[in-house]
Amino acid sequence: MKRKNELVKEGSLVERATKTRAFFEPVAFLAPFMVGLILFTVYPFINVFILSFKQNYKLSGAFSSFGLKNYADVLSDPNFLNGLKNTGLYVLFVVPIATVLSLFIANALNHDIKLKAVFQTSYFLPMVTSITAVGLVWKWLFNYDYGLINYLLSLFGISAINWLNNPAYNLSALIIYSVWSMLPFTIILLLAGFQNVDPQYYTAARVDGAKSGKIFFRITLPLLAPTIGLTTIINMISASKVFTELFPLFNGKPGSAYSLYTVVYYLYDMFYAQWKLGKAAASAIILFFIVLILTLLQLRIQRKWKNY
To answer: What is the pLDDT of residue 7?
Structure first.
């Protein structure tokens, strides 16, 4: 009996040690990531959120008052409202155009076509090239006097467009450049989605006499809905933070005559140029909640989009 109790006790200790180990092993593996997440993501976000309520905040930690005045000032600032409009138009054009183009390019790359490797390399080049170097190339392409784009337009009898110095065309130039730079990542994700579609669906559809167009819209697109939704959300978040694309095209300025303010450039201007830290933090929080609301709305639409 005594031996039996000892065995039961020993088994209980072993079981407890196993459970403890099972708990602490994943915690130990996750610890470095969680520490980094807390230090470099959670803490900065909380700090910026609190900072956005501090009026006339200084790096020394001093501030004059605590309230919503920074938000009121930002929302009444013409530069911020212009940046909000430009960012909205940028997202509205860049994300859908890049997604649709990537969808058809990924569909083509998913088939056995001639020079497939060459096309893949050319489409993925922006991902392995410095954004500054690429921006300088596009700056040459948009050049008014000897740019390739104006040369191609002249072949169709269209007059040269002053893309980079006329405020009316600054946003169009930025959209064209950004659509091209967004294609590679979107194509990769969509191509992975194409390759995960079971070929049996296509075989069954062809046996029933379905044409290529009907197969694409009735089978491929519905099955790609989750991937398309994911790429759209990622691209929308990325496009909402448009900033670095402005520097090579417009020499570090938000367009000619400062007409191409974006929300992130406004944040940069408030923080680094004017040292209005409270307003910079407030503009960051406003952008965060706008993107969050749009993302949640898109996720809700995406759940209803699934029909399989």
So the answer is: 47
